[in-house]
């Protein structure tokens, strides 16, 4: 496999544009063209890199960032617990509806950290006999559940804020409570530090990605909450409940957007074109006995991919040889960091009218590399 890729049978390396030429200052349309070819360079280099190099790079990244990962997860949990207590004090002491909204979001932060931690432990301790496909999707399901809980809390706060607007107070402004503002400002600064810390490793760990998104959302929520709370106490009373409604709507939209993304992965959203190209290239040049790649499909089954590949072999080769080719390709694909499971199907001819990789190709005769447990 690695030898086949290093040989570069499609001569892709000769089509890589000079990076120095692409980096020269360009304007307008030329800049867009240069960006396009720079992206093509990255994709070609990714295709030409041996699979073991992808695995080795992923392992090195995981090992080098192991300590940073623990600090991000456990540090976020400890900080969120302390900040939740701080925000509870700020909301109760000031009576500001905007700060009650930031308090509700802060209370759910440590709960989300605990949920992520428990889901990660459940995935690590999976029983292969009870869950042969793994339990990675439990993390996605937990994220969706948490998103809808946050949305429900936001709707409750919207109702309280609307009730406050319907019964205006006699005073033009509400009382100003400086310690509460200081407490929320401390929370804002802490979240900014956690956001910057998680930024560099957010793409290596799905848990850190969720934490990074949470810190990013909290920055906007806490910052806007401070402004509307101070506005209600210094300018007009209605700024505070109106700010609480805006914050609650913002929180709902952010979490529903996250829920939509997680739900798409849970129900099997297709992989992006670059990943499909990479998988196709690996299958095409895995073994000289593979005459054609008929179909390549890849979809999310939780945070990782399930891959299905149909390959065409000579009908005169033995079952043992065809099985070995399919099994070695399956092992190669499953060694990729983003792949959870791969199914390789052998066929003796391409689908009728097929000229390569197709999306809906029938398979007249199938030999599976995993013991025949797939239809």
UniProtKB/TrEMBL annotation:
Span-the-membrane segments of this chain are 71-92, 98-119, 140-160, 180-199, 245-267
Q: Keyword Glycoprotein: yes or no?
A: no
- The stretch of residues making up the signal peptide is none
Location in the cell reads: Membrane
Location of the Cation efflux protein transmembrane domain: 76-266
- Where would I find the Cation efflux protein cytoplasmic domain in this sequence? 273-345
Q: Which Gene3D superfamilies match?
A: Cation efflux protein transmembrane domain, Cation efflux protein, cytoplasmic domain
Membrane topology (UniProt): Multi-pass membrane protein
Question: What are the record keywords, sorted?
Answer: Membrane, Transmembrane, Transmembrane helix, Transport
Presence of the UniProt keyword Chaperone in the record: no
Q: What is its main location?
A: membrane
What is the name of this protein? Cation efflux protein cytoplasmic domain-containing protein
Where does this protein come from, organism-wise? Answer: Lithohypha guttulata
